Amino acid sequence: MSQPTGRRERKKAATRQKIADTAMELFLERGYDAVGIRDVAAEADVAVTTLFSHFAAKEALVFERDEDFEARITGAVTGRAADEPLMPALRREILALVRHCTADEAAPVWRMIDGSPALRKYEESMRLRHADSLAAAIAADPALSRSTTACRTIARFVIDAYALARESAEPEAAVSEIFRMIEAAWEAA
Question: Is residue 3 predicted with pLDDT exceeding 70?
Answer without folding.
Answer: no
